[in-house]
Amino acid sequence: MSMTFLFGYMAFMVVVLISVNLIARRSRPSRLAGATDGSLEVALEESATLRPPVQERTPLATADISIPKVLTVLLIGMFIAILNQTLINVALPVLINDFNVSTSTAQWLTTGFMLVNGILIPISAFLMRSYTFRQLFLVSMTLFFFGSVICSMAMNFPVMMLGRVVQAAGAGILMPLGSNVFMTLFPPHKRGAAMGMLGIAMILAPAVGPTVTGYVIQNYDWHVLFYGMSFFGLVTLFLGLAWFKLVQPLSKPTFDALGVIFSTIGFGSLLYGFSEAGNDGWDSPVVISTIVIGILGIAAFALRELSMDDPMLNIRVLKVPEFSFTLFINVIVTMALFGGMLLLPIYLQSIRGFSPVDSGLLLLPGSLIMGITGPIAGRLFDRFGIRPLAIFGLTLMTYGTWELTQLDMDTSYHSIMGIYMLRSFGMAFIMMPIMTAGMNALPMKMIPHGNATQNTLRQVAGSIGTAILVTVMTRQTTAHLADDANQFTTLDPALSQHIGDLGQQLGSSQAASLSWFSQLTKQATITGITDAFWVATVLSALALVLSFFLHGKKEPNLD
């Protein structure tokens, strides 16, 4: 069933993309007079009702638009789009009960969202050249709004899944759009601080999401979550209509339907395979087959793009050494980061028994630190370059991740909070600066392609990292449980006597055995989690070593 659903789902996304492309092209505005190919100079989209039709377009440097308003509405849109991704994780157990579906089926609410993003991001460079920033923003928020409305009215799983697909289509357009707008609006020497502001939305939303969702789930119906998403989506759409007036010169790239098909099959299958590896294991036929199909699809996509004079995604950006090297470090950091973000909530809620609200509140201070520090780290990047920031940030991140390998049943709430805050502080100095450093190495006309390549590989890296760490956790948990049970039953007669005494106190040896096995399982799970954090520590340490080979401050590419 899942394989049929996967390929049907991919075909649906291709049809939607081609349809939107054909419809939107009919009303696409002409290129700005005097604009040259590859130029990304931003201009104000003027309305005939506001200005005399004979007046020329105003350059951005002297335009009477409010750039803060543009950035505000963009950040709000990105914030709620990212926040929406975190809602389902906490609400999933409730949805499983309400819809009466299995966990593997319900997981499609998150897997499907990820797949749509993985399909749309590789073609975002084509979208940026085909449609204006304003068009893409309004379309993305419209899709997000209607998707949220569908989710809020869902009374069964298929309707809920449809709403998530529509939501994801909007978010998949919005995320690369945000990076492109920031890279376009700001000159290279100010991009570090600007991207630091963008990081606020990307960091705070995942921090706030679990806490808000946990509170709503405990006190209200889960539909309230999507009522809220619908309301904020509609408000942001109206703000966008009023404030988001940016357009850019457009080229007319040829729509490469075959490239879209290869990209959809390749990245969609690969992301699905890695996401299922954490659940079904690496030896699952479905996992192996989808990963192989994904690799073949990506290879076909790469060959297709390299053979074209005007590719949809110009992967020749990887020939720029500094871009490729920073991207490699970024991928390693993302693998360690995404997997770690999954493991810690499992430890807090499943092992230590913290509620979703308490778990979210524990993680909130660290994320707030990242949000506050992000713009500061950006300014330091503009002044000193990437190498000192990367070394400092990765040193703290590696140490903080190592500290998480020491977790046990007695680790205090405040100790965990302090470790996470330290780790988050270090991450603030590497996440957005390393992305900005790579983008600054590219000529301006290649920024959309570099942004699409970077976001796509980060998406894949997050899936791979999650799959690897979850696999390590589950297999090590099973191994430790078997070893501990064998030792306790054969090598420790004193413990066996203790269990017997405990059974007499409880009035039932069966109850004592269950209690003993429960504690044994928890201890084995903690050991499995800490083993997985050891892998994350090694990944972080590898990125730290590589950071010493980064270039110091250098002039960005202004071509």
From TrEMBL:
Check the record and name the SUPFAM superfamilies matching this protein: MFS general substrate transporter (SSF103473)
Where does it localize? Cell membrane
Query: Does the record's keyword annotation contain Transmembrane?
Result: yes
Q: Which residues form the Major facilitator superfamily (MFS) profile domain?
A: 70-555
Q: Which InterPro entries match?
A: EmrB-like, MFS, MFS_dom, MFS_trans_sf
Q: Name one Pfam family in it.
A: MFS_1
Give the main localization category. membrane
Q: How does it sit in the membrane?
A: Multi-pass membrane protein
Provide the transmembrane region boundaries. 6-24, 70-96, 108-127, 136-159, 165-186, 198-218, 224-243, 255-274, 286-303, 323-348, 360-377, 384-402, 422-442, 532-550
Transmembrane helix recorded as keyword: yes
Keywords in alphabetical order, please.
Answer: Cell membrane, Membrane, Transmembrane, Transmembrane helix, Transport
Q: Which family does it belong to?
A: Belongs to the major facilitator superfamily. EmrB family.
Q: What is this protein called?
A: MFS transporter
What phylogenetic lineage does the species belong to?
Answer: Bacteria, Bacillati, Bacillota, Bacilli, Bacillales
